[in-house]
Amino acid sequence: xxxxxxxxxxxxxxxxxxxxxxxxxxxxxxxxxxxxxxxxxxxxxxxxxxxxxxxxxxxxxxxxxxxxxxxxxxxxxxxxxxxxxxxxxxxxxxxxxxxxxxxxxxxxxxxxxxxxxxxxxxxxxxxxxxxxxxxxxxxxxxxxxxxxxxxxxxxxxxxxxxxxx
Length: 165
Fold this sequence. Notes:
Layout: E1 2-6, E2 9-14, E3 29-30, E4 36-37, E5 46-51, H1 58-70, E6 77-83, H2 87-97, E7 102-106, H3 112-116, E8 120-121, E9 133-137, E10 143-148, H4 158-163
């Protein structure tokens, strides 16, 4: 079990983050139209999985904005913003921000995602949500980059994630 911090307090994270060079675990998440989707919906594209606790927090919102700005316009790249937020909240946020280049996906019907990807917060006040992490996949769903952010309130390393595209 990994440990990260939330404002300096230790929080346990269940599961194991996918390692660079490994095949990404299969996933099913809920899209904005309430349909279930998997990685096959983004076949043939590199994928940035921007995983975070909730779009209604400042750092999470910033990560959605920055990945939309830095990566969404790249040809052959899909940015998947993944949280436990309901699709309605994700859509509201992106609509208010004018963000159109990311795919919002929710774990609300698929909590198994969090443990399969090693991001399930197992303790602390956000237990049950996801830790902040970035996983970058190639067109064949092989992991190119993997980062579990040590402090949940910190932003991920955008440059490292983008460098592997």
